[in-house]
Amino acid sequence: MTKTAAETADPKLRRQPHGGALLDKGVPGNRGGSGRPPSAIRQRCLTAFDARISVAESIADDHKAAPRDRLAALDLLARLGGLEWRSYDPRADAQAERFNLADHERRFTL
Asked: pTM of the entire structure?
């Protein structure tokens, strides 16, 4: 099977709305990736992680572990459990309040 002239021609740049450009037919010689991994691989990864979640639990419960490690384990468990883990930092709240006041003053000052 022979290729036509259009199939063998170098791809042209196609402009994008954000100002960049992409090759019209992709990178020559690169067929592209396989896309999303098969469900069997995803299932194997989930099973492997499920078997190791006890490691994060043991780090979170270990009173001899560094506080940084315990908090990182708690953060991981919270994110995976669908919880929003947010520590209270009064300095961050005060800074956010200053930004809100400055924005309010900028909008409504005559």
From this structure: 0.42
